[in-house]
């Protein structure tokens, strides 16, 4: 695996995926531990089940994929829910060996970039260069596509949803769970980030990479533009500081304080360097960010779960 960009000695031993993809986060054990904690907090936040798709009506399905599966935690949950299906876990990085050993037998792990899939012509013939992932996404072959927290990896959402729409069978379901890069006061739509300098810098970096600040809330429009029919769209408070007003997000607030906040400086370093910011300026903006993201109880980003069907 490629070493991280070592602009500071403290970060030199972090490890990253070894591909050209836009994804900015590491893939080492610290990150895997964070992802598993985040997955549990998300499930609690959205009501105790990893998927909001109509899973009861999907029993008997044959082929599903978890895109950007990370440590494979949701892939395993989906595989256990649908034992008769082959469930593909696709990611830029390998799933941890310990997970591969205990995974249900109906999972197939594949390393690859979903944005590399190219349909060469209107008949749906695919380019040979992207064979393993492209085989999973054969036109009209998938019953269920699940993708969660891909906002730091997908820099062409139109391609993501049009590839997915093409790969679904008629009646197949896509579920997308993702976060917007804005901060709100609890139980309101009142933005808190308008005056935050570090946030403006991150927005500018996002623009350069093609990553979207609205990967959650824009999904429905993009799905519709790809010919999909929206079944449901629900929004949750991804709390950064626990607050009793957002009861289902209390575990999320604890997770953010314990596991995400310590990783924020590294995330900001990677983002701000994209915008040419280095050295003491990164430190200043990071100090501001750490203060702002924990500035009040219930401060949150909006997490949207969108479920759609191919007609
Ligand atoms: C924040 S993690 C979320 C992991 C998992 N979905 C979860 O919720 O636990 C994002 C994952 O998406 C993967 N990823 C990012 N861009 C990708 C791409 N273009 N194709 C495949 N995987 C991608 C990353 O390697 C990373 O493991």
From TrEMBL:
CDD domains hit by this protein: AdoMet_MTases
Protein name (Swiss-Prot/TrEMBL): S-adenosyl-L-methionine-dependent methyltransferase
UniProt-listed InterPro entries: SAM-dependent_MTases_sf
Keyword tags: Methyltransferase, Transferase
Gene Ontology biological process: methylation
Origin superkingdom: Eukaryota
KW Acetylation (keyword) present: no
GO MF term (any one): methyltransferase activity
Residue ranges that the Swiss-Prot or TrEMBL entry lists as coiled coil: none
Organism of derivation: Coniella lustricola
Tagged with keyword Cytoplasm: no
